[in-house]
Design a protein that fits this description.
Layout lengths: L2 E6 L5 H17 L4 E4 L3 H12 L9 E2 L9 E4 L11 E4 L13 E6 L3 H16 L5 E4 L6
Length: 145
């Protein structure tokens, strides 16, 4: 059974979403997970990739795009056929609920205080429930990220 975690951030700033992604990815990789980050476009995937490569001054998060031949613990894609054959952990930064979502052991949604993101998240929350996954909420507004 898949586990879905919604991380509710205090800010509406898109940059805070990517900062939290870096922290989440670091923890997940340290725990032995392989991540697939799903986005809405190639442009956004490239932007996220660059941010992860420069996640902090003293380190980086190795990642690859489907168009590259790198073997890295993080894959960033934007089309359904980019989803790996052996799914482990999905970080969904897309507006959609990918059809293969339920195949992942772990799922993470990073939610910022943007009206558009909040509306999309409410819809996906219902989709997870409809797929038999009981989402867990992590209100990061009550603690520092």
């Amino acid at each position: 059974m898949s586990q879905a975690d919604f991380y509710i951030l205090p800010s509406a700033d898109e940059d805070s979403r990517y900062q939290f992604l870096g922290k989440l990815a670091t923890r997940a990789i340290s725990a032995g997970h392989w991540l697939y980050i799903h986005t809405d476009s190639e442009h956004l995937a490239e932007r996220i990739s660059e941010r992860l490569w420069q996640s902090s001054p003293e380190s980086f998060l190795a990642n690859s795009l489907p168009t590259e031949k790198l073997h890295a613990p993080i894959l960033i894609g934007w089309q359904p056929d980019h989803i790996p054959n052996t799914p482990d952990m999905l970080v969904n930064l897309s507006a959609i609920f990918p059809t293969q979502t339920v195949e992942f052991n772990r799922i993470a949604e990073i939610v910022i205080q943007s009206d558009e993101i909040l509306a999309l998240t409410r819809g996906r929350f219902k989709e997870y429930q409809g797929a038999g996954i009981q989402p867990r909420m992590h209100d990061m507004r009550k603690r520092s990220t």
